[in-house]
Amino acid sequence: MKKLVLTVAIAATSIFAANAQADSDLVQLGVKGGVNFANLTGDDIGDTESRTSFHAGFVAEVPYSERFSMQGEVMYSGQGFDINNSGQDNFLDNDDNIEYQLDYIQVPIMAKYYVVEGLSVLAGPQIGFKINEEIDYQPNSDAGDINIEDTSLPEAEDIEFSVVGGLEYKFDNGFFVQGRYIYGVSKLLKESDVFGDPSVHNSVIQAGVGFMF
């Protein structure tokens, strides 16, 4: 945990220190949040449904010209996937959805280009730090949590690398709306004796709103 906090702190400091290369009077800080539609993809994953969760965190935008900026974020992101168990007999003795919950602290660093005033495209790398991994067969209550360590399923890697791309529109009053897609490029799951070295990746669609102070 100490290494996680230190790494996030270094990443966040790097974002804000970048204003030494820009006009510090124009650096903007903000907050954001929204909905996640998360799933897993790859050759070694079967049919799954997206898990609906949320993301929330902090934003810093450092402008280098009228049209080009760098944007960094530190945020919580709920990911994983959903298994619809309706109609399947005796699976965990439950008829509700079953969630594989895989949650991260995500730190994206993105180039941001304003196509026209207010409208921008964003793209860049992202590093994610796993903070929770479990199966929940009662996702609408506080019960039903099963640790991955207590099953034969492979665990997710503690650190994940992704690529991010999206669109954002910022209003004159500081509010903004955005949508983006995140794809995990690094191996998601650890190698195991039962499942070998599976080819599985995170896949997340995000829609959110925020405010720049």
TrEMBL record:
Q: Which InterPro entries does UniProt cross-reference here?
A: Beta-barrel_OMP_2, OMP/PagP_B-barrel
Give the residue range of the signal peptide.
1-22
Identify the keywords attached in UniProt to this record, alphabetized.
Answer: Signal
Pfam families annotated for this entry?
OMP_b-brl_2
Ranges for domain Outer membrane protein beta-barrel: 20-189
Q: Which SUPFAM superfamilies match?
A: OMPA-like
Name used for this protein in its record: Outer membrane protein with beta-barrel domain
Q: Which organism is it from?
A: Mesonia algae
